[in-house]
Structure formats: C-alpha cells, structure tokens
Design a protein that fits this description.
The protein is of the alpha+beta class and 484 residues long. Helices cover 43% and strands 9% of the residues. The chain has a four-stranded antiparallel β-sheet with strand order 4-5-6-7, with no helix packed on it. The longest helix has 40 residues. 21% of the residues are buried.
C-alpha cells in the first residue's frame, strides 16, 4: 500500500476503500489485451466479409501456386481428398413402404439408374460422378469454396446423356465475383441475401474471368441464378461468412519457408557433391608468377592420384561441406507437423513418415479420422445429398421409376452414403476388434462392411454367389478358423 493510501485510510477510510476497489478493478484485466514493446497484440476487427474481401483472392492465388509448384502442398490436398471422398461417396437408397419395410424393387431400380447416371453426371461428359466428387472436394479445400449448378429436366441446348434427365455444371470459385456488392439489393460479394441473411440469388460469370480477354480488362458478363439451383460448399470459420477461405490460409507462410529451405539445402547438397579443390600458394615470398601465355592448371581427380605438378610453396586444399545437413529433416518435420495441424490432415500422411509404435500410429490415425468425419459429413450434406435428392426426384418425375401405392414419401430421399474406410495398421488386431464388436452386438454386419468402404448388398450377393459356386464345384463353402 502506497503512503498516500495509508494516509487516506487513516483520515478518510470510506474514500480510501472506494479508491482501492477502483484500483483493483482497473488492474483486473487480461494481460494479453494490453500491447507491450515485446508483443504488438495484432487485432482482427470487422465482420467476416469485411476481413475476407481484400484477402480471399490473394489467398486463393497463393494456394493454387503452391499446389502447382510444391509437391508437399499438392500431397496435402491429396490426403484430404483421399480421406473425405476416397474412391467416391456412393449412395445406397433406403426407401421404405408405409409399413416400414424396405421397397427393394424401388431401391434396386434406383441403383440401376444411378449406375447409368454416374457415367455422365456433368454437362461436359468428361468426368464420371466419383471423379467429379474428387474435383469438387479438391477445389473446395484449395480455393475455400466451389460452385455447382443443378440442371433438371429439359434445358435448352443441353443433352443430359443419361436415362434420368439431370446434370450438374461444376464451376470454380472465380465464377462468383468477389467485388460485386450492392447494399440496396442486399448483394454481398456476388451473393444476394434476404433480410435474414439467406442466399436467394447468385450472380455468376458466364465465362471464367481468368480466361476473358477484352478491352481494358473488362469483366465477363454475369447471369443471375436462383440459390435453389446452386450448390455452394465453402470453408468458413465465422458466422455470417459469405465466401470460403482456403485451408492453406494459416499455413501459407510456413509452406513457403519450408519450400525455400528445402530448395536451398538441395542446392547446397549439389554443390557439396561436386567436390572442388584449390591450390594454396603459400607465403608471398614463395609465389612464382605464371609465365606469359601459360594457361590455368586443371588437375583431373581420380582414385590414387599423385600430385607431382605443384610448384615451390604450393599445396592442394579441398573445399569441405557439411551438406546435406543432418538437422534439416528434424526442422522440416517439426514445421510440417505444425502445418498439418493447421490444414487438418495427418502429419504422417503428408510427410510420408510412418515411424513409431502401433499405439502412436493408431492414435494419430484415430484423431485424424475423427477430424475427417465432419469434413465428410459437410461434403455429403452440401454436395452428395442435394444431388441425390435431385436424381431421385427426376427419376420419379420422368417415369424411369414407377411410384408404388404404398410408398412412404417421408423416406423418398433416405439414403446411406459410404465413407472412406479407416486404413488398417495391423490387420490382425483390426479384424479381432471388428469380430469382438460383432459378437457384443455393438455394430451390425452391414455397418461393419460399410465402414470398410464396401457395399453391404454387393458383398452379400458376392458371398451368396461364391457359396453356390463352391457347392457346385464340390468345395467346402465354410472358411476354417485360424488354428493359431
């Protein structure tokens, strides 16, 4: 207590008490909120759209440059796509009757029609549906967002090329202008919203603005498309964010640093590999200048070489190098581990470093798989499920599927979407774990099959066919247990 406070406490105790309480309130605050000479306390203020308006285009361009020119960044995108989409997210219809039973005839017909549709799902006919899924997911993570237009029924100038008249048009994020704003109409960065912030229209470029050539760099013409016809999955971290941000946004600087360090180390290693020697002249008194017209001496290095052409006072020296640097790998792995955390992918998958015990690898795999789960669910909810609902609607509307009288319309869009299976580290332990869960009735066989990335109906059909073939050939159809 200061001298003044002591004097006030003895003379005016009530005032001194209020003064000390006020001082305590002033001191009671977060230290991190106060900038110091050691910490600048950098702030981010403003709405999500305000912050992103000036940054998204630059972040997107840098992310694309990394993918095009840095193998690790491209591999990181591969890891995300492989664990979210894999070989393709496949639908398994679950339409039921009014009494709760699966309508196998309807579900089987939808599967048959879907096998035809997946061959030409998009307007260019260049990609099947599962390749299109991977392209959409890759664009989503690299650019932060992606667009797809839903085209149902008869569309002028469009041949769907499938039994079910339905197609999608895939578009990169560039088709949605970042600078198209109109407060009076509620247009924010190319998206028109209602009073509640719900998108009602999208203003889409008719051609990719990056390929448009015009006088003075004129922008391509836009068209207005209803929000109900647009799929717009985006990577957001703030409520009310209109446009998505690349998953590389927080790690761009780290990736650039890692890339430069690796390039510098590779150059240094190449220099070190090209062994270079030099001739030490000794003291100036011993130096003998070369005769007029004499060329520089070149000594060819070979095993067992003997130097017999040195002059008085000369000696041969070699340029030593400590490259390759044994510490650069540890430094690189530490930075890559931090970058993997920022991206949301497993470090071992990105760095292709699988050192460690089964328990440590399993722990990393489980944590990464849990993170991939929400990404998978978001992709299913924003891409796969809407596309499936459009496909089913057009399958019934076009007459490709007959509508049974006992159809429960509440289940018309019910479907199970497959998910990439969690990879096995130790197959024996994994199988034993699945077997124990089945014995304890903690999981159904169809769920276990689906978790392995396979279709339960296809597996059952193949097993049934295989047993019938074994019996016809005179083989035992039972698989003997492992005697060990």
């Amino acid at each position: 207590m200061k001298a003044l406070d002591l004097w006030l406490a003895g003379t005016f105790p009530g005032y001194a008490m209020r003064r000390m309480k006020a001082q305590a309130l002033v001191r009671a605050k977060y230290e991190a909120a106060t900038p110091t000479h050691q910490r600048k306390a950098t702030k981010s203020s403003g709405s999500a759209d305000t912050v992103n308006r000036a940054a998204i285009q630059s972040l997107r361009d840098q992310a694309r440059n990394l993918e095009e020119n840095y193998d690790i960044a491209s591999g990181a995108l591969d890891v995300l796509v492989d664990n979210v989409v894999g070989m393709g997210i496949r639908p398994d219809p679950q339409i039921k009757s009014l009494n709760g039973d699966l309508l196998e005839d309807v579900n089987s017909k939808l599967r048959q029609l879907h096998r035809d549709w997946v061959k030409r799902p998009e307007v260019t006919w260049e990609f099947d549906f599962y390749t299109a899924q991977r392209l959409l997911a890759r664009s989503l993570y690299r650019d932060g967002e992606v667009l797809a237009q839903r085209l149902l029924g008869k569309v002028r100038g469009l041949d769907h090329g499938t039994i079910v008249p339905f197609s999608i048009e895939m578009m990169e994020a560039d088709f949605l202008p970042m600078t198209f704003d109109d407060d009076a109409k509620g247009i924010v960065q190319g998206v028109q919203k209602n009073a509640w912030g719900r998108p009602i229209n999208y203003y889409i470029y008719k051609t990719h603005p990056g390929s448009y050539v015009g006088f003075g760099g004129m922008l391509a013409e836009t068209k207005r498309v209803k929000a109900s016809a647009i799929l717009h999955p985006k990577m957001v971290k703030r409520i009310g964010q209109t446009r998505g941000v690349s998953v590389f946004a927080t790690v761009l600087g780290r990736f650039e640093d890692i890339k430069e360090i690796e390039e510098s180390e590779r150059v240094a290693a190449r220099v070190a590999a090209a062994m270079t020697g030099y001739i030490k002249k000794g003291n100036p008194d011993n130096y003998v200048s070369p005769k007029s017209g004499e060329n520089f001496r070149m000594i060819d290095f070979e095993p067992g070489i003997i130097f017999d052409d040195l002059r008085e006072g000369e000696d041969v020296g070699l340029i030593s190098s400590n490259r390759p640097n044994s510490q650069v790998t540890l430094f690189r792995d530490d930075n890559m581990r931090a970058a993997a955390s920022g991206i949301g992918a497993a470090f071992s998958s990105i760095a292709k470093n699988y050192n460690g015990s089964y328990s440590s690898q399993r722990q990393e795999l489980v944590e990464a798989y849990q993170h991939y789960g929400p990404l998978w669910m978001y992709f299913v909810r924003t891409v796969c499920q809407p596309i499936w609902e459009d496909f089913v609607s057009m399958a019934f509307a076009s007459g490709a599927v007959d509508t049974p009288s006992d159809l429960d319309r509440d289940t018309m869009f019910d479907v199970d979407h497959s998910r990439p299976a969690m990879p096995w580290i130790d197959p024996k332990k994994e199988v034993e774990g699945i077997e124990k869960r089945l014995n304890l009735r903690l999981v159904a066989r169809s769920q276990a099959i689906r978790q392995s990335g396979q279709d339960p109906d296809e597996v059952r059909e193949l097993v049934k066919r295989e047993k019938a073939q074994d019996e016809e050939d005179g083989f035992s159809s039972d698989i003997s247990p492992d005697p060990s």
